[in-house]
Amino acid sequence: MITALIIEDSRDIRETLAEMLELAGYYVLATGNGVIGMEMAKSQKPDIVLCDIMMPDVDGYTVLQCFRQDPELGNIPFIFMTAKSESSEVAMGNKLGADGYLIKPFDDAALFGVINSKLDPLTWPPSVK
Hints:
Radius of gyration: 13 Å
Helix content: 40-55%
Protein name: Response regulator transcription factor
Distance between the termini: 7 Å
Number of helices: 5
Keywords: Phosphoprotein
InterPro entries: Bact_response_regulator, CheY-like_superfamily, Sig_transdc_resp-reg_receiver
CATH superfamily: Response regulator
Structural class: alpha/beta
CATH class: Alpha Beta
Organism: Pedobacter ureilyticus
Strand content: 15-25%
Number of strands: 5
Largest sheet: 5 strands, parallel
């Protein structure tokens, strides 16, 4: 089963995203806090991370930098979710090593399209245990 970590400060978005992923057979970890998200990643080793950029405690850029500097987390596909689609935002994420972007609001086709493009095809589709 594929494990997805959602780091999103909006409860509504976080819960909706978690439900979409769970219905597709994912095991979902979710938090609204970047620091807690990093701790969850270290203990649970998710297969993919979906992270908001603008959060009140630690922004998504900082979370991504921490992932890329950690040998255990550095290769996990990391997808930014953002309401901002300015080229400077995308450029910053690319510079830090983001693997993809979802521009809010997005639908399930966009969500699973970006996830599918980043996961190992040998592990897709997820098997429900």
